[in-house]
């Protein structure tokens, strides 16, 4: 990849290269960015083979029938000798490559067909491969004068490979290191916005579409939704804020103050004792009644919070089972999307873009 990369970027690029070797479905993405090793190998082999010495003419034995048979075999071997090199060229053109080179690929196919026709019409004669060799060199180096690539095109595609395709890998690596702050926590709103932006960029870049990468993004969306569900199940303040009606207390007015309720009840108790000692019976009675009602309301709210927590924990367990089944390939994208809508009818945890990703294409069972 052109240009200097930072340490983290270099690690991410190495991770992409590792996945490229593991999953051949990613090869078209690298090829579109002008990064392919197999093409260079095939071109070099074809060019070397075209320069090999062809079979030699058989000796004349004096037997016309035998000489005719040997000559026929010689011509067949001569044709096959060069056709094997042309077959390597055919194989090269079947591999993914920079889309802008498609017209050049058609020109190479036409040249190969003409060479085969010429060899049929002129048996046992060496054709002129100079034009084919020149076209192959231009095809590999991406420098045909009639098909100039826009400046920065390949560099931009390589940057997209790292920024968009590498994003799920970046999140995965950041999650393994507690001191890595390359991405926000999965349960945060910042990550939700960042994920949406990256997924939208992926959807808007068709040449990046791959079943493997789509699966990565879908899994990342599921993991983030599960992390938010677990956060809500363990966050006391979030659970309390979800209650429909709350008894007036200091914690309602100051939700960020952890000891608000303890201070509130201590203040009410102190005022009640002071009113009793001061023989303010009406005020003391009202304070005692208010304190009793507050304690009762607090207990009722705690019961409601625990019930809500149990509900969220059960939903998180269901989401975890659905996520694991999808990861193992035992559930189809359409069925997953249907189940997610049942689990999260208001898209509170699963964004709509996740459903768009699941409809992008079907996955193989081993994706």
TrEMBL record:
Membrane spanning stretches: 263-293
Record keywords, A-Z: Membrane, Transmembrane, Transmembrane helix
Record has Membrane as a keyword: yes
Protein name: Uncharacterized protein
Organism (species): Chitiniphilus purpureus
Lineage of the organism: Bacteria, Pseudomonadati, Pseudomonadota, Betaproteobacteria, Neisseriales
């Amino acid at each position: 990849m052109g240009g200097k990369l930072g340490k983290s970027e270099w690690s991410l690029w190495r991770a992409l290269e590792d996945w490229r070797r593991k999953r051949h479905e990613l090869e078209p993405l690298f090829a579109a960015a002008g990064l392919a090793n197999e093409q260079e190998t095939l071109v070099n082999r074809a060019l070397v083979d075209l320069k090999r010495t062809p079979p030699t003419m058989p000796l004349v034995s004096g037997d016309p029938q035998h000489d005719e048979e040997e000559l026929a075999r010689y011509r067949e071997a001569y044709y096959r000798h060069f056709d094997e090199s042309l077959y390597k060229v055919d194989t090269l053109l079947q591999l993914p490559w920079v889309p802008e080179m498609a017209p050049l690929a058609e020109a190479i196919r036409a040249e190969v067909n003409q060479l085969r026709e010429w060899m049929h019409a002129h048996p046992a004669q060496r054709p002129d491969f100079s034009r084919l060799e020149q076209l192959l060199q231009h095809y590999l180096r991406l420098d045909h004068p009639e098909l100039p690539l826009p400046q920065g095109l390949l560099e931009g595609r390589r940057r997209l490979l790292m920024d968009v395709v590498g994003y799920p890998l970046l999140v995965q690596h950041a999650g393994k290191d507690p001191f890595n702050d390359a991405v926000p926590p999965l349960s945060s709103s910042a990550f939700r916005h960042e994920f949406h932006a990256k997924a939208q960029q992926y959807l808007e870049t068709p040449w990046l579409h791959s079943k493997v990468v789509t699966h990565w993004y879908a899994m990342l969306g599921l993991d983030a939704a599960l992390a938010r569900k677990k956060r809500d199940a363990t966050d006391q303040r979030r659970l309390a804020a979800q209650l429909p009606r709350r008894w007036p207390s200091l914690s309602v007015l100051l939700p960020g103050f952890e000891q608000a309720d303890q201070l509130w009840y201590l203040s009410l108790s102190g005022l009640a004792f002071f009113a009793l000692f001061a023989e303010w019976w009406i005020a003391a009675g009202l304070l005692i009644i208010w304190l009793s009602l507050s304690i009762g309301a607090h207990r009722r709210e705690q019961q409601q919070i625990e019930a809500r927590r149990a509900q969220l924990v059960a939903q998180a367990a269901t989401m975890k089972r659905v996520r694991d089944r999808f990861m193992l390939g035992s559930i189809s994208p359409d069925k997953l999307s249907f189940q997610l809508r049942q689990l999260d009818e208001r898209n509170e945890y699963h964004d709509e873009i996740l459903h768009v990703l699941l409809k992008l294409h079907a996955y193989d069972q081993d994706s």
